[in-house]
UniProtKB/TrEMBL annotation:
InterPro entries: Glyco_trans_2-like, Nucleotide-diphossugar_trans. SUPFAM superfamilies: Nucleotide-diphospho-sugar transferases (SSF53448). This is Glycosyltransferase family 2 protein. PANTHER family: GLYCOSYLTRANSFERASE (PTHR22916), GLYCOSYLTRANSFERASE EPSH-RELATED (PTHR22916:SF51). It comes from Parabacteroides johnsonii. Residues 15-180 form the Glycosyltransferase 2-like domain.
Length: 363
């Protein structure tokens, strides 16, 4: 049953939000790792997003054991809706997120919280790294950042030097709750990729400082069935692309950045463009040619100059495809991509290998 925030007498330091769907095999490890934190002053919000498996019962069982846990059940609406539910119900001064198939080390919350600046009148974003591993525990990679503080006047460096868009993952970040509430920042439920990056970029429009830290206490477990490898609709990818463009332009204006300064942002933006461009051709998407051509026109016609300056694919087939797009030869481009995907050349969609957590993962 749901436990109302009204019943909580005092505000805790951190609200940890865990969206849950079909997580019965990994959920208990995730929850136990959070409950073992060296910083005890937190609440754990378990958001059951209509799981058809035993996840719901597991949540309630854990809630009966620890009063810091509150459980909320909702009809399945996706991970963004689940995170938004957590934001609405959170009573902590700060919020952070843990996915139900991942787990965290003992000092995860402690290191995030202690990285905050002492001036409580300022709102910041804390960004730490993570370890990426396989379900059997084998480490794939480690994202480890150098200790660094950027004040608001230095935020341009976050985009010019630090390429902060590559740090758009949901994990290992600490957000200030009242800033989120004041500006109605939420995850976009219309999209299924990059929603965490877009959330971070919107938050950065309003905060006063950024702290990078070298801790890597979040363990991201890569599963082949993760959301990042699912095929999404054109409209979902297109909405993501448009929101990314909007936020990029707001950032450019607020911090007085030139187009050259924004090169890293636009490069990350092109990942979303490529996803939008190719999603109709993915196995599992049965889109008629007439609709595919309509989507190509919709995507390319309004962003032709952006494609010209910032879309620089690696593979020869994609370079030829870029030529066709720039010359509005949509029928030939459609024929090319249909043939390529029928032949199973997946690398054309994937692009150069990169971490699955950075700048919107590519299936």
């Amino acid at each position: 049953m749901e436990r109302s925030a009204i019943d909580r007498i005092r505000r805790c330091k951190i609200s940890v939000i865990v969206p849950i769907y079909k997580a019965e095999k990994t959920l208990s490890k995730c929850i136990s790792s959070i409950l073992e934190q060296s910083l005890p002053d937190f609440e754990l919000l378990l958001i059951d997003d209509g799981s058809p498996d035993a996840s719901s019962n597991i949540c309630e069982d854990w809630a009966d054991r620890d009063e810091r846990i509150r459980v909320f059940h909702q009809q399945n609406a996706g991970v963004s809706a689940a995170r938004n539910k957590g934001l609405v119900e959170a009573t902590g001064e700060y919020v952070c997120f843990v996915d139900s198939d991942d787990w965290v080390k003992t000092d995860y919350l402690k290191d995030l919280y202690e990285a905050l600046l002492s001036d409580d009148s300022k709102s910041g974003l804390i960004v730490h790294g993570f370890v990426e591993c396989l379900p059997d525990g084998r480490v794939i990679s480690e994202i480890k950042l150098q200790d660094k503080i950027l004040k608001e006047k230095q935020f341009a460096d976050a985009f010019i030097q630090d390429d902060i868009c590559r740090l758009g993952y949901i994990c290992s970040k600490l957000y200030r709750k009242d800033l989120i509430d004041k500006h109605n920042i939420a995850f976009n439920t219309e999209i299924a990729c990059c929603e965490d990056l877009l959330f971070m970029l919107e938050y950065l429009l309003y905060c006063d400082y950024i702290v990078y830290g070298k801790s890597t206490h979040y363990i991201y477990v890569r599963y082949c069935t993760s959301l990042s490898v699912r095929v999404n609709s054109f409209e979902s990818e297109y909405v993501c692309f448009l929101q990314y463009i909007s936020l990029a332009e707001q950032i450019k204006h607020k911090y007085g950045l030139s187009s050259e300064d924004m090169e890293a942002v636009y490069r990350s933006l092109m990942v979303c463009f490529r996803r939008t461009l190719k999603t109709d051709y993915q196995p599992g998407n049965t889109v008629l040619r007439k609709e595919r051509l309509m989507h190509l026109r919709k995507l390319v016609d309004t962003r032709l100059e952006m494609i010209r300056f910032y879309y620089h694919p690696v593979y020869k087939i994609d370079l030829f495809g870029r030529y066709l797009l720039l010359h509005r030869m949509f029928y030939l481009y459609d024929l090319l991509m249909t043939t390529v995907f029928l032949l199973g050349i997946r690398s054309v969609f994937m692009g150069p290998k990169s971490s699955s957590m950075i700048s919107c993962p590519i299936p």
